[in-house]
Amino acid sequence: MVGVLIRMKLAVQRNSLTRATAARMIGGGAAGLALAAAVLFLAGRGYPHAAQRFDLLGAALAVWTAGWLLGPVLFGGGDTTLRPEHFALHALRPRALATGLAAAAFVGVAPAVTLIALSGLVVVAVHLGPAAVAVAAPATVLQLAFTVLCSRLVTAVLGQVARSRTGAALAAFTSAAILAALHSGWILEPLVRAALDDGLPRPAAAWLRGLPSGWGLSAVEAAGRGDRPGVLAALAGLALLTAACAYGWALLTRRQVTTRPSDGRAATATLGRWARGPVTAVAARELRTCTRDLQRFHFVCFALGYALVFCLLPLAAGSTDFLPWTGLVFALWMSAVSANLYGEDGTELWGKIMISGAARHDVRGRQLGWLLVTAPPTVLLTLVPAALSGASMPWLWLVTFVPALLGGAAGVTVLVSVLRPVPLRDPHRRTGGLLENGTDFAQVLLMLVLTAATAAPALLAVRFGPAWAGPVAGPVSGALLTWLLGRIAVIRLRRTAPELLQHFRTGTPPTRQRRVRAAPPPLVPAGLPALRRPALVLARLGLDTAPVGQRIYVIVGMALCWVPLVAQGVVPAVMLATGHVHRSWFLALYLPPTLRRPAITAMIALGLALLITSLGTGLYHLARSRHRR
Known about the structure:
Largest sheet: none
Strand content: under 5%
Number of helices: 27
Oligomer: single chain
Radius of gyration: 27 Å
Shape: globular
Number of strands: 0
């Protein structure tokens, strides 16, 4: 069974390999190898203190293991090439199936890269003698087995737990904490530098040794000291914990094969007294959906968790500069995760087609519902941190940006939901799993850029106008954008509702539907079905026929433009304007005062240049590809 499932996994990966999956595999493998090389570098370089090598390697292994355990929560359901549900109708014993799937889990790029990173135990053992090297080899194998099997167990547990509201909130806060820590972890740069220079504090080092990710390192250290009981205890504990993970995953595998998850309880439709008209009725429905639909509830908890972690993490370095902006970060992410309102409802769109005037009521009701969900927490997350910080707050900026961003986001959310929906399974056909929610990261990135751009008029007013211009321009621009973008969304929905419904039913984009209707039928030999072209990521972006250099420039430019634009431009500009200067990694703040503003202007110009040129190149090739087709 083990050999059969391994060959099956390799065959599935080989036959489903496309240019997009190959690019992701190569890119992920290259990034993993770079990180593994960094782990080996930490294990092999010289240090002024002998314990420093073990402290930093223990921290690196803890981060690596955390990536295995929590990565599937953030980036999807992990490796789903072979799933237990695929074998539900086969007469296989659950134990044999779990053993085969466990063995197949070690086949792939990620386990191979992890083995290279864990070989840092062997590198660090070289400095301790032959006995430590002899112990490092089995410790590396056991550490790899524990990491992979524990990741499988955690993914399976979260897949089961996430079918409740408590599990949805837990999964959301976990993924939000990971992403926010990646985005704002640079604020801890002084602490990291101190650890590289002087090592970790003893309590932190002991805590890292106590984690299962550090048990292999503890065994190597014990071997270097000649402590045989310590070696046996560490290796035996790691082996027992690995066996427990394998046993737990086998039990969950059996449950996945033999049971069908419930998609939730039935809910009665009750409206409040305030929901008297069609617009308020739609808004009331949106409020109920945010609490009853697990996916929508998951997204709300994600936005809240990201805002809290992103703005509270700098407190570890003694900085309170991000606290006043917690509410704005929450509103920004609420718009990003709410940009697929019609795609989440699926074929329910037919009701808007059959009822006259329903499009306008539905769009305006969704805007009102989004504001009722987002505006109160945004205001609360703005006022409470400002009051608790005890420092002078940039009230002029906050009073300007909060209504401007809320209004602009309410308009952009419904417009993008109509212009670029992502078709999902109908709500009544979903299984309740949240680790495979079909999130389109291109749509999220687009929403972050567009929503932030809606605050540009308010920014110009508060920056270059008189003191009263900002508080006036913020609400006015927010209200105007809410009405204008909502009006465009209504017109677009009326014109393209049938095509959108077909898009949700079949997955075929409206532009391709028009090309298919206009093109002659393909010549297919008798008896053979017509094969659809796979919807590759590069083809959807129009980059499948672009030169390699321009393709790389578009991807790299869109991914890195935020560094000079936001991180090195907008953030230090806000610091200088508000008087709360924290140099950290901001390049302009290390320059003389006369050069700071020109440097910030140059960074913003560089970021805008990258964004505009990469976006323009991508749109150019997208237009060319559509014209050719």
